[in-house]
Specification:
By secondary structure, the chain is an alpha/beta fold. 35% of the residues lie in helices and 20% in strands. The chain has eight helices and eleven strands. The strands form three sheets. A five-stranded parallel β-sheet has the order 8-7-9-10-11. It has a four-stranded mixed β-sheet with strand order 3-4-6-5, with helices on both faces. Helix 2 crosses helix 3 and helix 4 packs parallel to helix 8. The longest helix is centred in the C-terminal third of the chain and has 21 residues.
């Protein structure tokens, strides 16, 4: 029998839900909600709930979030992040703070925070510590002590991850945002600045990729702490 035939898949009218994702990759499939109706997302969630899995949908429209909140009493809706999730992790492990350069970066940061919460990783928001006020980050550094990884969200010139990377011994996942004036090119300037960081512990995900930044940092945290628990 082929590996494809061994893969449990739940079929909805519009999707083939990969219920083996958690066994293969550590966490269940995540729904990219942009362009999907509440019913389409709900059908995926129903399949995941039936398999005993937690669910997360990102980039969910205002209308779909409202409908899902009414249909799922245990749904956790974050309007700023545009996410919907259900199911609580049995325990929190690790620690991944999420830092923003400015308040306008908050929606992307919230997507990272919701992703980490869904993964069962302890997190905290350190907001508005960008390089325009260089005294602000050092004041907050005690709050990120012991982090397994950090997510740093910044637009404009994208300088904050390099500064954070120079203070921390853990991986720094840089998330460029589309925040900025014309020469920011919708986040491209921040992306290139982060890719050219001289801080050796900085790696970069896509523009406005709060989910990807949170997920990668969450994998680092859960992997590190699973190894500690196994000792």
């Amino acid at each position: 029998m082929s590996s494809a035939e061994n893969t449990p898949t739940a079929r909805t009218p519009d999707a083939s839900v990969d219920l083996a994702r958690a066994a293969r990759c550590g966490f269940p499939e995540v729904v990219f909600g942009e362009g999907k109706t509440a019913e389409q997302i709900r059908d995926v969630f129903t399949a995941q709930r039936g398999a005993g899995q937690r669910g997360l949908a990102t980039r969910v429209s205002d209308e779909a979030r409202g409908l899902l909140a009414g249909q799922m009493p245990d749904a956790v809706v974050n309007d700023l992040a545009r996410t919907v999730r259900f199911g609580e992790a049995k325990r929190e492990i690790g620690f991944v703070p999420v830092l923003t350069a400015g308040t306008t970066d908050r929606p992307v940061a919230e997507e990272a925070l919701e992703t980490l919460r869904w993964m069962g990783v302890r997190t905290a928001l350190i907001a508005d510590v960008g390089v325009a006020g260089p005294h602000r980050l050092p004041e907050r550094l005690p709050e990120v002590e012991g982090a397994d990884a950090a997510v740093v969200v910044a637009g404009m010139e994208g300088a904050l991850p390099s500064v954070v990377g120079g203070h921390l011994s853990c991986p720094v996942i840089a998330v460029p945002t589309s925040v900025g004036y014309g020469a920011n090119f919708g986040g491209l300037a921040a992306l290139l600045g982060m890719l050219n960081s001289c801080a050796a512990n900085v790696v970069v995900v896509n523009i406005d990729g709060g989910f990807k930044g949170g997920y990668v940092a969450g994998l680092i945290a859960t992997g590190a702490n699973d190894r500690e628990l196994d000792r």
